[in-house]
């Protein structure tokens, strides 16, 4: 985890995130993790689930990728600052501007990457909202950044708890309509994840183990029955 976790507070928040994901999910899978990712990167992610930020944090730490994440409701739990969270309140343009400047400085000076929920708000699947101006603004300030589309998909049918899937795409070339083209790539990844989860599960790797079903944890068939009668 290295620089990502700062002090005792950071360690405690990291533990909290891992406990939460372990409790909430059966398994978290990922596809095509970019272990050779050029830094700094902008990980552009859809925002369909409450746990999106947690899953991206787990993916980033697994990759050894120092990241920052803009959090609209940062003030509700400012301890996220100890693991890379940064305030991005909708009603405070001054603080948002400060966060933008700090992000650009971190990306330029220490190759810190950015987790960007470019839709700007959490919403129900499966649609993708238009991506805002933030992506192209950051790229204009950090032209050496790599834009990576990322998709997160949730399914709840085969197990007591839902399964989560994370997929990384190939870098999106700079140029006109960057936000629009990145949105298309995220949409394509979401469709691909649907197919992978149904037909090609052997291509998925486990990112994080959650909690198995009650029948997987407590299968009474494994306990030998005592003989009711004596020989």
Individual helix count: 6
Strand order of the largest sheet: 4-3-5-2-6-7-1-8
Order of helices and strands: HEEHEEHEHEEHEH
Total number of beta strands: 8
Spans where pLDDT lies below 50 across 5 or more residues: 227-231
Distance between the termini: 60 Å
Helix content: 25-40%
- Which structural category fits the helices and strands? alpha/beta
Rg calc: 20 Å
Average pLDDT taken over every residue: 92
Q: Per DSSP, what share of the residues sits in E-state strands of 2 or more residues? A: 15-25%
The shape, in one word, is: globular
User: Largest sheet, if any?
Assistant: 8 strands, mixed
Characterise this structure.
With 231 residues, the chain is α/β, with parallel strands linked by helices. The chain is 35% helix and 19% strand. The protein has helices spanning 7-24, 52-63, 93-110, 134-141, 178-199, 214-217, and strands at residues 27-31, 41-45, 67-71, 85-87, 113-116, 146-155, 163-168, 205-209. The chain has an 8-stranded mixed beta sheet with strand order 4-3-5-2-6-7-1-8, sandwiched between helices. A hairpin with a 7-residue loop joins strand 6 (146-155) and strand 7 (163-168). Mean pLDDT is 92; it is low at 227-231.
């Amino acid at each position: 985890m290295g620089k990502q976790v700062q002090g005792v507070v950071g360690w405690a928040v990291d533990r909290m995130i891992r406990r939460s994901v372990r409790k909430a999910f059966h398994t978290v899978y990922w596809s095509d993790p970019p272990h050779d990712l050029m830094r700094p990167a902008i990980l552009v992610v859809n925002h369909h689930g409450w746990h999106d930020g947690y899953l991206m944090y787990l993916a980033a730490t697994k990759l050894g990728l120092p990241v920052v994440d803009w959090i609209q409701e940062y003030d509700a739990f400012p301890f996220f600052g100890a693991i890379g969270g940064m305030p991005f309140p909708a009603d405070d343009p001054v603080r948002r501007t400060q966060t933008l400047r700090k992000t650009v400085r971190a990306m330029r000076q220490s190759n810190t990457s950015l987790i960007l929920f470019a839709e700007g708000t959490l919403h129900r699947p499966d649609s993708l909202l238009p991506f805002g101006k933030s992506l192209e603004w950051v790229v204009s300030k950090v032209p050496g950044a790599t834009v990576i589309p990322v998709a997160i998909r949730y399914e709840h049918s085969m197990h007591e708890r839902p399964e989560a899937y994370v997929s990384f795409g190939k870098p999106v070339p700079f140029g006109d309509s960057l936000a629009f083209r990145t949105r298309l790539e995220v949409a394509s990844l979401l469709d691909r994840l649907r197919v992978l989860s149904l037909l090609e599960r052997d291509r998925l790797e486990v990112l994080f183990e959650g909690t198995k079903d009650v029948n997987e944890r407590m299968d009474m068939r494994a306990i030998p029955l005592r003989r009711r009668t004596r020989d």
